[in-house]
Design brief:
Blueprint lengths: L1 H15 L4 H29 L15 H16 L1 H5 L10 H8 L1 H10 L10 H6 L12
Helix pairs in contact: 1-2
């Protein structure tokens, strides 16, 4: 499911950047095949060369933090619930304001691009700018 959402997000960003759909599809197809082969090759190498991979006693700290992050997320969203995390006065309450920022920020960017057509504002794309936060790792590589 995660890969499907990433694929759809990439196509959406390509649409925002006015990349032709045929080119986006071709690039995604080639990248998917190449990435799949590379991932499987690295996985086989890791299983054959790293002792105790994905265990607490793994060599060089290869403990698979993504699996731990997924487990923690399932506990947070299932047992704790979002209301305890995002309601007023809680630690993540301020994160809700980013929805408002996401709605409002493109408006002044649009008008700046219209007012100054030869400026860098014409090239600024807010969804593309904010999608960079998706590249932030969900957990550290060390324990």
């Amino acid at each position: 499911m995660s890969q499907g959402l990433t694929f759809a997000g990439d196509l959406k960003l390509g649409h925002y950047m006015h990349v032709p759909p045929i080119m986006m599809c071709l690039v995604q197809l080639i990248a998917t095949i190449w990435g799949g082969l590379g991932n499987v090759a690295v996985l086989f190498w890791a299983f054959n060369n790293i002792s105790g991979v994905c265990t607490p006693k793994a060599a060089q700290n290869f403990v698979c933090p993504q699996a731990t992050t997924f487990f923690t997320a399932s506990v947070v969203w299932g047992a704790v619930g979002p209301q305890r995390m995002f309601q007023h006065g809680q630690i993540y309450y301020a994160n809700l304001f980013f929805f408002l920022i996401g709605v409002i920020l493109p408006i002044p960017i649009y008008f700046l691009a219209k007012r100054y057509p030869n400026s860098p504002w014409k090239l600024f794309n807010t969804p593309l700018f904010f999608s960079g936060t998706a590249a932030i790792p969900p957990a550290t590589a060390i324990k």
